[in-house]
Design brief:
This protein is mainly alpha-helical and 31 residues long. It contains two helices and no strands.
């Protein structure tokens, strides 16, 4: 299932994806 089917608008998805990338980048620093 695609993310857009689970979430609301594309703008909300972009915001969410950028948050996830930011968090993953932080986690990568801790590894």
């Amino acid at each position: 299932m695609r993310l857009t089917e689970l979430m609301g608008t594309d703008d909300e998805n972009e915001e969410l994806l950028s948050e996830i990338r930011h968090i993953r980048a932080k986690l990568a620093q801790w590894d």
